[in-house]
Structure to design on (154 residues):
C-alpha cells in the first residue's frame, strides 16, 4: 500500500466511523460552520476546564467524507490539549493545507501528524480545501464562543 492509498483509507475510515460524534457532556462553548459550495455543516462543542484544557470536544454535522473525516481527526487530536496548544495546532494545520509542505507543530506527535497529513491530498483542489478546513475554522470560533455562523464563502 502506498502513502496515498493509506491516506485515503484513513479518511474513508474516519468518514464512515466518525469519532466524538454528538454533544460532549457539559460543553461550555460551541460554534457552527457551513460550507455552501459543498453543503457541509458542522457544529463543534467544546468543554474547557479552569486550566483551559480541552476536557471534551465533539461535533455534529453532515457533509462529504472529507469534511466529516477532518472533523473526526481534529476532535481526536485536540482532546486533552490546552487552548494555546490547540490554537497553535489549528494554525499549523491551516498553513499545511494551504501551502506548507509539512506540519511543524511541536504539540503534535508523529502519529498525530500522520493522521493530519492524510488530509494534505486536498491541497490541489481549492473546493476540497474548504471541506477540510470548515471544522477547523469552526473550532477557532468555538474557542471564542462566537454565535455567528462560520462560512467558507461570504
Ligand atoms: Zn465537502
Amino acid at each position: 500500500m502506498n502513502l496515498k492509498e493509506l491516506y485515503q483509507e484513513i479518511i474513508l475510515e474516519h468518514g464512515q466511523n466518525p469519532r466524538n460524534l454528538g454533544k460532549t457532556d457539559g460543553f461550555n462553548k460551541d460554534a457552527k460552520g457551513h460550507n455552501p459550495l459543498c453543503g457541509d455543516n458542522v457544529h463543534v462543542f467544546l468543554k474547557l476546564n479552569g486550566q483551559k484544557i480541552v476536557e471534551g470536544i465533539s461535533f455534529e454535522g453532515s457533509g462529504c467524507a472529507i469534511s466529516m473525516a477532518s472533523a473526526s481527526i481534529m476532535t481526536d487530536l485536540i482532546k486533552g490539549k490546552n487552548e494555546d496548544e490547540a490554537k497553535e495546532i489549528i494554525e499549523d494545520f491551516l498553513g499545511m493545507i494551504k501551502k506548507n509542505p509539512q506540519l511543524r507543530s511541536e504539540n503534535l506527535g508523529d502519529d498525530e501528524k500522520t493522521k493530519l497529513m492524510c488530509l494534505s491530498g486536498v491541497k490541489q483542489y481549492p473546493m476540497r480545501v474548504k471541506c477540510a478546513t470548515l471544522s477547523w475554522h469552526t473550532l477557532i470560533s468555538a474557542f471564542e464562543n462566537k454565535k455567528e455562523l462560520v462560512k467558507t464563502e461570504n
In short: The chain has one domain: 3-144.
